[in-house]
Amino acid sequence: MPESSPVFPKQDSVPWLFCLGFLLPAYTLTGFDASAHTSEETLEATRNVPKGIVRSVAVSAGFGWVMIVALLLAMPDLKAGAAKGFEIVPWILRSALGERFAQSLLGGVVMAQYLCGLAALTSASRMTYAFARDNGLPGSRWLKTVHSGTQSPSAAVWTSALASVALVILLRYETIAAVCAVFLYLSYVLPVAAGAWAHGRSWTHFGPYQLGRAFKPLAAVACVGGLFLLVIGVQPPNQQALPILLGSVGVLLVTWF
Predict the structure, then answer these.
(1) What is the pLDDT of residues 205-219, one digit of tens each?
(2) Which of 106, 118, 217, 241 would bridge with 234, disulfide CB 3.0–4.6 Å?
(3) pLDDT on residue 44
């Protein structure tokens, strides 16, 4: 990798670069927990929510793989592309499709990013309100208030929005992405680890959608994968992610106890 690359510092270890490449699917394969967020409004939730999660991962993986392969095949020069850093996708589109068509596609990307951010804000504010409703956050009495006019948890919504703006101001974009990916996967893995630990003890009965004997081996793989993502998610230039992660864990522990 060239020394001038703005993405990662110079690295001669191909296996380590391969490991760092797992950040890309980690960024892509997120958001499937939205199926769980809406489970209270889902018919036959014990069956349909797990199915929704699996289908979401399958669709994201399939379409993401096709997109990445298409971009790689369309890249006119690999070395020149590596030097582009975060500008590589617009560069490929302009090189392969021409300026006008590339601009229209990039406009679609911007709109998709906006809608994705809006969905993330909706999800975050929903969870903030839900935790505050159960007195699980500092300032829960205020965060769980519902606006009399809009009948919406406006305090939770604006707190989530302002926290997002603060992150954008204080941190690099790629660091924010790494921190969010690590936090998301930790939130996915922790219930899996807790379930594997409790199964056969306090938890003895599976729901209708189950993995049977494959549950514990897959749970172990998931936990190892979560730790692996944690390691690669705090590597340069995302080293700011580590103190943010440790600080957040410290605040959560203090708040809990």
Answers:
(1) 888 888 888 999 999
(2) 241
(3) 86
Minimum mean pLDDT range among 27-31, 100-104, 163-167, 180-184: 27-31
Handedness of CA 77, 80, 82, 85 (dihedral sign): negative
Q: In the predicted model, is pLDDT for residue 6 greater than 70?
A: no
Tokens 């519902």, residue located = 146
Whole-number Å distance between alpha carbons of 245 and 162: 19
